[in-house]
Amino acid sequence: MASKQDGVWIKLQHIPREILYLLIIISMIVPLLRPMGLPITISPQTRSLFDSLNTLEPADVMLEFVDWSAGSMSFHQPGCIAVSFQAVKRGAKLVFLSTSTEGPLMYELMLEKFQSVFDEADYVYGEDYVYLGYVAGEETARAAIASDIRTAFSSDYYGTSLDEIPLMQRVHNYADYSMIISYTMGSPESFVRQFNTQYGVITHIHCGEMMTPTILPFWASGQITGLLNGGVGAAEMEVLVKRPGDAVKLTDVYSFSNILVFVFLIIGNIGFIMQRRKGE
Amino acid sequence: MSTKLVRKTVPLIITFLVGLLMIGQWFLKIPSLNELATSVQQWGIIIAAFAMGLGSVNIIIRNVHRIQKREGTDWLYAIWLLAIFFLFAIVGIGFGSASSQYRYIFNTILQPLSATMYPATLFFLVSAIYRTFKTRTVEGGLFVIVGAIILVANAPVMAATFPFLVSVKSWIMDVELTAAYRAILLGIGLGAIMLGFRVIFGLETTHLGREEET
């Protein structure tokens, strides 16, 4: 904390954290209360995912790993909804499943918002989409799902045997998956290892922004086809599918909060450089 | 059977055989080997499910000990942890995890708490960035400049208003970051291969517990 005798440059470096926190709260609340609809640029990674989804045919099956938790629901759920919307628009079949414990509840919360899309498209549970529930084992489970889905699941989330579900009668292993997408905050590279590296299945990832730098090398190498970068990526996908939703509403918050962090970074450094020059 | 045979030799033999099997099925596409490897993966899933149960028992034992000792203020948190643990367990087992009762406690307790934890880190991040990202050295200056560019380019409105920022950010991410992170990944990969061989050949035995216990 700077004292009254300190010069202006020292004070610039010691703005009380209460003021910092207050400004952060304002930067988050104001855009939420009064959305400004600030422009959004589409990244090449999101565009690549969108283009890949547009190659889906009605006979294709896409695996969607509902692996997010309540903490990342604000951006994973809109991302999943936007991706699923485009897949449904293409008429593809969707197999939802989870390898994280909170997955089943996250799926149900997502379904509350997405059921109307299934209804409008005349999608029937068991024929056009299915939810298999949660399986323990993380990467081991993902490996098993890739090699033979029946080693990981014998029934769907509601207890119906896989062999009695029309859609699952033709879904057995990697050869039946047109593409997969993982919505995760965990280890997205395990999906690359188990699905793309070993079997060449088209793999998409939607991860948190702090995870993106760790997964970018796989996108550059072509092992990941599409990559959604946290909330911004979800918003970009909503724009591409022309269905603005919760993620687009949050982009103003991302813009404001990022600019605020940038401003404080500059203020702190101006204070530091000037203090050093003046020898305070 | 002697303790050493049961607690060390047999697990090492199992590790060796399973390790060889999994490596073999990756490189050799022999149907019978693949079937066996798939079975092992299935066992892995079952063991993982058991491990979750074991973890739950461990949580109970550790927190009951904490409450019994009553050291500091930790034991109060332990009581709270166990109360919530049993609340979720009883409702989940009693009514099912898809029931309205379980969803109610999930939606009113866990979801708001988890949803708060993630954005709350923003406050600490801003404070930390403001206080520590300083141009003390040339390297530090470069770090600040790169961080500032990424920050601004990640703000959707700035990326849309100043497209050149996106190009600069893309270059940093695609060339600089990817090159550096690939080196890290290769290092991790080589380390994992070495560790894998050490485990398979019984040179690494920490997964069997401490030496005095084995």
Notes on the structure:
Chain A has 11 helices and 6 strands. By secondary structure, chain A is an alpha/beta fold. Chain A has a single domain, classed as Rossmann fold (3-Layer(aba) Sandwich). In chain A, strands 3-2-1-4-5-6 form a 6-stranded parallel sheet, sandwiched between helices. The radius of gyration of chain A is 22 Å and the shape is elongated. The two termini of chain A are 16 Å apart. Chain B has 2 domains: 89 residues, no CATH class; 67 residues, no CATH class. In chain B, helix 1 packs across helix 2, helix 2 crosses helix 3 and helix 3 packs antiparallel against helix 4.
Write the topology of this structure.
The complex is a heterodimer of chains A (280) and B (214).
Chain A: H1 8-13, H2 17-33, H3 44-53, E1 61-67, H4 73-89, E2 93-98, H5 103-120, E3 129-134, H6 139-147, H7 149-152, E4 179-184, H8 189-199, E5 202-207, H9 212-220, E6 226-229, H10 230-240, H11 246-278
Helix pairs in contact in A: 2-11, 4-5, 4-10, 6-8, 10-11
Chain B: H1 3-27, H2 31-69, H3 74-95, H4 100-132, H5 138-154, H6 156-161, H7 163-200
Helix pairs in contact in B: 1-2, 2-3, 3-4, 5-7
